[in-house]
Design a protein that fits this description.
alpha+beta; 5 helices; disordered C terminus
Amino acid sequence: QAQLLKSCSFDQACAMHQILLLVCCVPAWGRVSNIAATGNPHAPAASCSAESAGDCECPAQRLDLSQANLPLLPVQPDSFLGMEEHEVHGLKVSLYNFKQPARLSELQLPFKLLLLRQVDQTDLELLEVPSKDALDSWFPGFAWSILLCKRCEGRHLGWKFTPTGDGVPFYALIVEAAKEDELESRLLVHLRAVGRPLAALGLAASLSLDG
């Protein structure tokens, strides 16, 4: 949650924080949305040519949205910013908004997370962190490790959370959520800025759900 992101500016962190606080105040049940597993918005963009766009997307970004794959869990109070509730193809989906705790990162960057019990493991890699940091977790009773996609220089997709006692592991993917046209417009603006193809951000995966 902390160490990967020191390169972001304070202004970027504040802007994202303000956006999430605004979103968290708006009820979303009944709002039909699309959810895209975009990866870390604060990290430098991985290099990816248009010709290799399909290869840059890890299968884990093709979201398996089904009721059985969507856990609901208690949260760490001092870093929790709020919950968003979206409707995707008739399914109610909860998204968690967190900031990094100041004790782990002075930037306190915000993230929007989709929790999944299972994701496709193809080309995923875990980056372990010191146990003291891992146990300072957004989800009490679970230790975190950083989840990376190894394709196209690697991309930070989210985190894996492993129980320290009873419980089962789960994954928290970094996502964007909006109405279909809003999400596409937002991601296209981002693409123009960093020169990455649309497929590399996983938008197509969110529009043709497996679950």
